[in-house]
Amino acid sequence: MKVKKFKHKKIILFVCIILLVIIPIFYNYFNNIQENMSNKYTIICSRYNKNTDFLDKLSDTFDVKIIQKKNIKYDNKYVDHEVVNIAHEATSYLSYIIKYYDHLPDNMIFIHDENKSWHHEGLITDNINIWIKEYEKTDGFYEFNNSKTDSCQWCYTDDIFKELWKKLIPNKKLEDHTFNGKCCAQFIISKKTILLNSKQFYIYFYNWLIDNTNGEGNGASEDKYAGWRTSRFSEWLWRAIFKKN
Question: Is 101 in contact with 10 (CB distance < 8 Å)?
């Protein structure tokens, strides 16, 4: 009996020693994964006035920045800067790109200010790593919304949209382009892809939206220069700008 007890004690001691060795290794391993993910991906959230507490669940793994629309009360540690409430998320995204153009993170995840929405599957907090895996199969641009931009037939004949297209993408013909991307402008993109265009390109795009959008928010739907329309111009343009085909 004494021999068996002694053996049991040895086994328990051995297991304890193994655990003491393995646990720190796994702890450091997963810590390094989180650090590498944080270094590789930054979440940029365009916020108006919705609750963005869900970002707390992502901040341990990712660098998180909120681009806040002006004149809206907020108390959030992730706010990086404010931007005018014009053309929805487009001016938020562009203001971030312009501000950080010379020192962008390796990869950026541009999102709206809601964890659950009709235009993406499930919760961002649940699916973000799945979308990142899909993004890593691409050439640096991945739209993770689930609704296609197949309802923009009027943009082909819209003179304002044609003008913006010619200014931004003169080497592509609008009539040859099919809007088979996703609506609502949420995507993952690489620094390399953004840097294919000059800083002046994004400044022009931003200023065009400011100068050619009447009022804030959606504006009047019948107004050809309302934010409802100029924001949708931007939704359709991201893919045309960033995709090679």
Answer: no
Which H or E run contains 65?
Answer: strand 63-69
Radius of gyration of the chain (CA): 23
3-state secondary structure of 93: helix
**Residue 94 · residue 202 · CB < 8 Å:** yes
Closest CA to 144 of 156, 160, 130, 159: 130
Cβ atoms of 48 and 113 within 8 Å: the answer is yes
Q: 182 phi and psi, to 5 degrees?
A: -110, 150
Distance (Å, whole) CA 99 – CA 158: 31
Query: Which residue type occupies 92?
Result: S
The closest of 105, 111, 139, 117 to 55, measured between CA atoms, is: 111
Arithmetic mean of pLDDT, 129-153? 86
Structural contact between residues 148 and 178, judged by C-beta atoms closer than 8 angstroms: no
Note the pLDDT tens digit of each residue in 14-40: 666 666 656 555 445 444 444 444 449
Burial class (CB in 10 A: 0-12, 13-18, 19+), 165: buried
Check residue 217 and report its DSSP letter.
T
